[in-house]
Specification:
By secondary structure, this protein is an alpha/beta fold. 46% of the residues lie in helices and 14% in strands. Strand 11 and strand 12 form a beta hairpin.
Length: 424
């Protein structure tokens, strides 16, 4: 698969590493986003790339020494008692500036809590002759080490980049899809490049799902567990909460009831999932979040939403390799699932864009009870509601992922709803 997007990140990383003085760059974000791929596209052959693991400190230093020996002959013939000694040894040996990349940096810090202070000392004393790129998938640790004002490395990085999922248009470019197929595929795989690579190896979406997801031997069969290992301690509780949300329990009271726990016990795990970007909290457009009792919790990542909607309820069938119940569920619910993702895509398309020469702010959804033309309460919902930046216009819209709709009726009904909420 071709490397798509990441132009800004690529340029920023390249410029930082090409500065006259040595620099430190920090790159973080959830797994599978292509952090390592981005770095490898920028660094040169004479640079050092070291992938850390969870082994003990002494073993990690030994492994790094072996990697250094690729550019410094016999570098690994010496025993280095600590991190400072190996960093300084490389400093003494180098004549030309190079780049040292430490991937999965949090693994090293787990075994060597003093490592950030060691690097801080080298940077503050302007000792290093080479660049350092520190990369990690643990968002909690990376944020804590570089963006917490009390951390040793706070303010030391020349660049800090948080990689996020790629946007919808790029999946079409990467996989050669038309607009409709791109939306369907994005609703399943989201903006994660690794998932796109796995999809590319199969002839169709259906084949990719059976080979990559709906099998005990599939590479993505236990993907959520692997993602949560970096930042979440209670994986079982987290997965349970997401399972309920993924199958329609979106209100706090509903989630608490299914978990058989008081709602107050869920505030911390839900906040954690919100902070990590796994969940999003939806409130009716124009309603103050602090005062809203209508908040809905939704899984924000498309793949995780798909997984907890279609995979988790069918785990027993997958274990027994029974395809028919899964196929039936997909036939009955897949289009509706795509429709929900399509609504989010449409709201994102409106947000911050100019439509009919009007610049709009952040789009949302509105739902609630209003008094209709007969002066009776009516529950209505609007898929898109967005106010212009100058507050002179309100855009409302309806999103449908279906065929054969009566467009005239939908338009008239949308106008009717818009008038009702204007009075609300």
């Amino acid at each position: 698969m071709e490397f798509v997007d990441r132009k800004d990140e690529y340029t920023r990383l390249k410029e930082a590493l090409n500065m006259e003085r040595p620099s430190m760059v920090v790159i973080y974000g959830r797994r599978r986003l292509g952090k390592s791929t981005l770095i490898k596209r920028v660094i040169a052959e004479e640079d050092i790339y070291f992938l850390a693991d969870r082994s003990e400190k002494e073993h990690q230093i030994l492994l790094l020494a072996k990697i250094f020996s690729q550019i410094f002959p016999d570098f690994d013939k010496v025993t280095y008692p600590d991190w400072e000694s190996i960093f300084m040894a490389a400093n003494y040996r180098t004549e030309n500036k190079f780049t040292l990349v430490i991937d999965e940096f949090p693994y090293l810090v787990e075994q060597s809590p003093d490592l950030p202070s060691v690097i801080q000392k080298l940077i503050d004393n302007h000792i290093l002759k080479y660049n350092i790129v520190l990369c990690g998938s643990s968002q909690n640790m990376m944020y804590g080490m570089f963006l917490d004002s009390s951390a040793p490395l706070y303010g030391r990085a020349d660049e800090i980049m948080k990689l996020t999922p790629l946007r919808l248009p790029f999946i079409g470019e990467a996989l050669g899809l038309n607009a409709v197929n791109a939306i369907e595929e994005y609703a399943v795989w989201g903006g994660i490049p690794r998932y796109w690579e796995l999809r590319e190896r199969r002839a169709s979406l259906d084949s990719a799902l059976w080979k990559n997801v709906f099998s005990v031997n599939a590479p993505l069969y236990e993907e959520p567990i692997k993602l949560f290992q970096d930042d979440i301690k209670d994986i079982v509780k987290t997965s349970t909460i997401l399972s309920f949300i993924g199958t329609g329990a979106n209100r706090l009271s509903e989630i608490a009831a299914r978990c058989n726990q008081p709602a107050t016990n869920l505030s911390r795990p839900l906040r954690k999932l919100l902070d990590l970007g796994i969940l999003e909290k939806e409130i009716p457009f124009g309603v103050d979040e602090k005062n809203s009792k209508k908040s809905l919790y939704k899984i924000s990542d498309p793949f995780l939403a798909f997984y907890y909607h279609f995979v988790v309820p069918n785990l027993s069938f997958i274990q027994l390799d029974r395809k028919e119940p899964i196929e039936r569920m997909l036939d009955q619910q897949f289009s509706q699932y795509i429709g929900l993702q399509w609504e989010k895509i449409c709201r994102d398309a409106v947000t911050g864009n100019i439509i009919d020469n009007v610049l709009y702010g952040k789009a949302g959804r509105w739902w609630g009870s209003v008094m209709n033309e007969e002066h009776k309460p009516e529950q209505i919902e609007l898929d898109i509601v967005c106010e212009s930046i100058d507050k002179k216009y309100l855009l409302v819209g309806e999103c449908k992922w279906t065929t054969g709709e009566n467009v005239s009726y939908l338009t008239a009904e949308l106008i009717r709803k818009a008038k009702l909420i204007r009075k609300h």
